[in-house]
Amino acid sequence: MESKENPQNPASGDSNVPEGEKKLSKKELNKLKKKEAKATAKAANQKDQPKTNEGPEPGSENFGRLPLNQSQERTGKKFWKINELSKELEGKTVLVRARIEKSRLTGNLCFVTLRRNYSSIQGVISKGPTTPKSMLNFIGGVNKESLVDITATIVLTKEPVKECTQSDIELQIQQFFIVRESQPLKLQMEDLTRPKNVLKAQKQEIAKLAAQIEALEEKKKSASEADQKAIVEQIEQVRKEIDVATKFVKVGRSLRLDNRVLDLRTPANQAIFRIQSGVGQLFREYLISQGFIEIHTPKLMGVASEGGASVFKLGYFQTSAFLAQSPQLHKQMAITSDFERVFEIGPVFRAEHSITHRHLTEFVGLDLEMAFDEHYHEVLDVFDELFVFIFDKLNERYSEEIKAVQRQFPFEPLKYHKPSLRLTYPDAIQLLRADGLEIGDFDDMDTPTEKRLGQLVKKKYETDFYMLDKFPTAIRPFYTMADPKNPQYANAYDFMLRGEEILSGAQRVHDPEMLVSKAKERGVSEASIQDYVDAFRYGALPHAGGGIGLERVVMFFLGLDNIRSTSFFPRDPKRLTP
What we know:
CATH topology of the largest domain: BirA Bifunctional Protein, domain 2
Number of helices: 16
Distance between the termini: 97 Å
CATH superfamily of the largest domain: Bira Bifunctional Protein, Domain 2
Strand content: 15-25%
Largest sheet: 8 strands, mixed
Number of strands: 18
Number of domains: 3
Radius of gyration: 37 Å
CATH architecture of the largest domain: 2-Layer Sandwich
Shape: globular
């Protein structure tokens, strides 16, 4: 009987299926057709793609990412710093490691700004036989602040590159490798580095426009209904102008300090802390040349070091201890131990709940103590020469750093005399009274009064730096020697810089009985200062000294407005991080 099935087997799609071979179902047949279609499409696609088996793209060896530096080898290559480059090196090929401050890709050119510390230079690369377009795209896509190694030739620029410190040369890039790539930034460096005067001008413009809106709002109150509509349109127009004027982002101090690692990279901060380092170095340099030795006193104390309440108390085994408010007591003990001229650079802790522009709870003290022969003014002479030496050498040795600060925080150069101006406290009171201020002979000066006095002194004597001698006895510590001619005044002094105090000091009481008597007058128990008093019972040379705030010296020398700008990682009543 003839089969009822179609001789063209629908199960296999093939009338010549070999005997014994399994026939495909309809579902399996559809899967096979789809698979064949995909294979055909893939083959066609590969036919249109460039062949990759002909080797790497020309120039691909000139860019990329370097492996993690685990000190695999030391090749001896010379790495140039940006500030070492100059016009005299024109045509020289150099290897530079720097950060990418910004990049700009335009057609077949890519421009990058490279920064190292407070120095910067422009790099440029153009498409060519060994610099393919993919290399330019790679460079243009690198995250800002990434560290890169660049091999390039130094060339002269046709026009000065005003945004870079190296304005008359640039780098023609041949090789570009990422050393460590930065993640996307929380804060943009252009906002962190924007000059203060630019932000000030923007603030003034916005304030001017805001005043216009206020005036229009007032005018609208008494205007007719028809006029009100026109005034509303004017207000909207001024608001648009404010939006245009608000083109720069101002980064607040708190946000800067929360991201201090980024903030410290700015050229101004790089310069500030090199200058701060210079102050410490010059302090040592001068004093050592004058026969001083450096000492290191304890910062853990069994009693408050100045007999005050503004101390940090902490657990110390089974008892309590205090962080030192100053090295005052121990540096005096050093004098009684016949070291005669000593200094120290170290941390000072003050538990004062003062959130001001010039107070920190931890700062660096530059302290000195010195025995003298006849008069404490011998010590003032040393201080005078010390500060003049520091100011002179900062201007001489750190001129580039000073310029870097001025670019972001413009300030007038410090004015000072040689020898420095000396005024007595009564002289200062008379200046203030002549300017209309009501102040008593023995009143203490608050910060606004100090600043006012500084302005008067600058106007009359043309100096930003002066000494203020013979303070009232009542406003100085118990261990301060009184003036023998008028006990209401003391042999005590402050040094003032741009109208604010940077040093406080005095001749110390070196007679133990007088010291005990003065302590009792101020309510300080003899038992709490027994070790201190006993140090003078074996004969002590007359001596005087003082404590200088390092951060304040740098702050006022550079005309900055807040001490947190000169503290690496500031500590105040509200900040213990980072």
